[in-house]
Structure formats: C-alpha cells, structure tokens
Amino acid sequence: MLALLRGERRYGIEIVELLGGIDGLATSEGTLYPLLSRLRRERSVSTSWQESAVGPPRRYYELTASGRRALNAFAEEWARYRDAVDSLLGAEDRSTS
Amino acid sequence: MTAGQVVERYLRDLERAARPLPAEHARELVDDVAEHLAAARAADDSEAAVRTAIGRLGSPESIVAAAFAEAGIVPVPARIGWGEALALVGISIGFLLFVVGWILGLAFLWSSQAWTTRQKLVGTLVPPGGLGGFALILVRPTLYSLPPAAGTPLAIGWLVAAVASPIWLATRVARNGPAMRPRATAPAER
C-alpha cells in the first residue's frame, strides 16, 4: 500500500481499487480500510481533503517521511527474502533435473 | 430499493458489526467506507453499480475482522464468568461477611472487563455496602442521624437499590458485547 503512494498522492477509493485489483493479493476492498486507518494513525501517510470536479470532496493520501522509511526498510527486507526463496527454489530445480 | 437505501442498509450493518471495536476505530472505519461509497455513487448512482461496489468491498463482518487484526486486539466473548459472579455476590451480600466480602466483591468488579467504568461506579455506590448497608439501617436506625420518618422510605429505597443494582449489572454483560484484550503478536507490516 505504501508502495502505491511512492510516486504520487492518491485518494482512498483509488488505493483500495488498485490493491483489490492486483492479482495474487486476493483481498476484498473493504478490508483495506482498516490498514489505511492504521497507516494514518502511525503517521506513515498524511491526508488532505480536496474538492473534486465530480461528487464529494476526496481525501488524498501522501507518504510521510517516516512512511517512506518504512517502505524502504520493507523493500530491502523483501528483496532479501525473495533472493533467499529464489536460491532455494533454484537449488531444488537443479537437483530434480 | 434505491441506491441510497442499499448504501444506507450496508452502512448500518457495518456500524452494527463494528460495535465491538474501540469507538474511535469503529467511527473511522464507517467514515472511510461511507466515503468510498459516496465516491462510487458520484461515478455511477445506479442501484446495480452500487451493489457491485458493495460486493467488492466485502461483507461488514470481514471488514471488521480485518479491523480487529490491524488494531492488534481480539474480542473476548461477553459472559458472566467466575470473577463476574463473585463480584455480584460480593457487592450485594459481601458486607454481611465482616465487610471484607464487599471489598473483595469490589476488587472483582473493578478487575473485570465485562463492565464499563460508569457501570462499575454504579455497582460500587448504588447502594454503598449493598444489602449490608440495608441491614445497618435496620439495626442502627440512628446511625445516619435521620428523623425517624425518613428511616422507612430510605430503608425501602436501599433494599430496592441493593437488589436491582447487581441484577442490572448482570444484564449489562451481554449488552456490553465482547471486551477487548491485546493480541499477543503485532500486526504484520504491509
């Protein structure tokens, strides 16, 4: 979720629709709101209301400095984890072939 | 049913499902989902579109379950356990047991998660000493230095309060719904 906000700020419904639509992250859109709420509480994201051309005002989400740090830390950890799994799977491939 | 009615019913169900959550979390959750649906309706206000949007959100129960996981708490089912039973017995008749029983009852009352602080205050003060206080009025009417005429109504009021207050507290347990306790593990980072 933080990664979605890396490049730009987005509004709530846009975030949950993007995440809900990603293959492999099988999740209903509604269950993402508690996560968004926790990120707000942790101040990993900041919000601002903005008028919309169509419909009600929208709340935009933006990464904060601490959110960016959390994202970078997670990205590093994830890369390590992925490499570890890849090397294990690679070893398996070689032994079976 | 109109789109508005569909949304209204869904939000009402969500509100009901979210009741066991801490109040602030529940309000934020309902606000977020209401905002989501308002934005969806701004794009397409047909009943079919709104139903699709709700289908993608998922059931209120699943959303509230996710909220529990994020908040790092699990609900403890609301029931009258040993602690609650001892609390009710203690505050009603404990005073007769050399006062200690009443104080023990208060300890159980205040350490239980089944009641709110306000309800615990009622249990403590209405009436102080429970039935023991009533017995004191009977035995020593002059103790409270009241005019004799005030003695009888006071005694009756005391008796009613001493019986009604524990019964009322017992009925609150189920009404209060599940209590919360912190979950052992921290929520996963995402």
Secondary-structure map:
The complex is a heterodimer of chains A (97) and B (190).
Chain A: E1 10-11, H1 12-21, H2 32-41, E2 45-50, E3 58-63, H3 65-96
Antiparallel strand pairs in A: 1-3, 2-3
Chain B: H1 3-17, H2 23-43, H3 47-57, H4 60-71, E1 73-76, H5 82-93, H6 100-111, H7 117-125, H8 131-139, H9 148-176, E2 179-182
Antiparallel strand pairs in B: 1-2
Helix pairs in contact in B: 1-2, 1-3, 1-4, 2-3, 5-6, 5-9, 7-9, 8-9
Spell out the key features of this protein.
heterodimer; A: 97 residues; alpha+beta; Arc Repressor Mutant, subunit A; 3-stranded antiparallel β-sheet; 3 helices; 3 strands; 54% helix; 14% strand; elongated; B: 190 residues; mainly alpha; two-stranded antiparallel ribbon; 2 strands; 68% helix; disordered C terminus
In short:
The complex is a heterodimer of chains A (97) and B (190). Chain A is of the alpha+beta class and 97 residues long. Chain A has helices at 12-21, 32-41, 65-96, and strands at 10-11, 45-50, 58-63.
Please provide a written account of the structure.
Chain A has a single domain (3-96), classed as Arc Repressor Mutant, subunit A, CATH 1.10.10.10. In chain A, a hairpin with a 7-residue loop joins strand 2 (45-50) and strand 3. Chain A has 97 residues and is of the alpha+beta class. Chain A has helices at residues 12-21, 32-41, 65-96, and strands at 10-11, 45-50, 58-63. Chain A contains 3 helices and 3 strands, in the order βααββα. The model of chain A has no long low-confidence stretch (mean pLDDT 78). Chain A has a 3-stranded antiparallel sheet. Mean pLDDT of chain B is 79; it is low at 185-190. Chain B folds into 2 domains: 3-75, no CATH class; 82-178, no CATH class. In chain B, 68% of the residues lie in helices and 4% in strands. Chain B contains 9 helices and 2 strands; from the N terminus they run ααααβαααααβ. In chain B, strands 1-2 form a two-stranded antiparallel ribbon. Chain B is mainly alpha-helical. The relative contact order of chain B is 0.12. Chain B is elongated, with a radius of gyration of 24 Å. The two termini of chain B are 38 Å apart. In chain B, helix 1 packs parallel to helix 3 and helix 5 runs antiparallel to helix 6 (100-111). Classes of the chains: A alpha+beta (97), B mainly alpha (190).
